Automatic annotation (TrEMBL):
Belongs to the universal ribosomal protein uS19 family. Signal peptide: none annotated. It comes from Candidatus Nomurabacteria bacterium RIFCSPHIGHO2_02_FULL_37_13. HAMAP family: Ribosomal_uS19 (MF_00531). It holds the Pfam family Ribosomal_S19. The keyword Membrane does not apply. Keywords: Ribonucleoprotein, Ribosomal protein, RNA-binding, rRNA-binding. Protein S19 forms a complex with S13 that binds strongly to the 16S ribosomal RNA. One of its GO terms (molecular function) is structural constituent of ribosome. InterPro entries: Ribosomal_uS19, Ribosomal_uS19_bac-type, Ribosomal_uS19_CS, Ribosomal_uS19_SF. One of its GO terms (biological process) is translation. This is Small ribosomal subunit protein uS19.
Length: 116
């Protein structure tokens, strides 16, 4: 359910005070726990560290984000992965291919050193 029009959008006053009159390029990351705060045009270019319940995730504010909430860009759930037996086999084949590629790269560099 959206916020009532007569109430207006929720922009945290303390966040606006922190960015008032500052240059976005020279300002360090601003930590915040205000996930419900709506991103306003004044916040463009600033980097916010939005709390996701465990850590702070850095979010660089761009034009496309105006009107959205800060919490939308800091996921609170950790995606592990899908899969099962087939997925494990695919991952193991991928690791083996990487190992073979790394060995061949080291052999090529060793051969190059011998020729010098």
């Amino acid at each position: 359910m959206t916020r009532s029009i007569k109430k207006g959008i929720y922009v945290d006053e303390k966040l606006l005070k922190k960015i008032a009159g500052k240059n976005p390029l020279q300002t360090p990351v601003i930590k915040t726990w205000k996930r419900a705060c709506v991103i306003s045009p004044e916040m463009l270019g600033f980097t916010f560290a939005v709390h996701n319940g465990k850590t702070h995730i850095e979010v660089l504010i761009t034009e496309d984000m105006v009107g959205h909430r800060l919490g939308e860009f800091s996921s609170t759930r950790k995606f592990t992965k899908h899969g099962g037996k087939m997925q494990k086999e695919l991952e193991q084949k991928k690791k083996e291919a990487e190992i073979i590629q790394a060995k061949s790269a080291t052999e090529v560099t060793a051969d190059a050193k011998k020729t010098k």
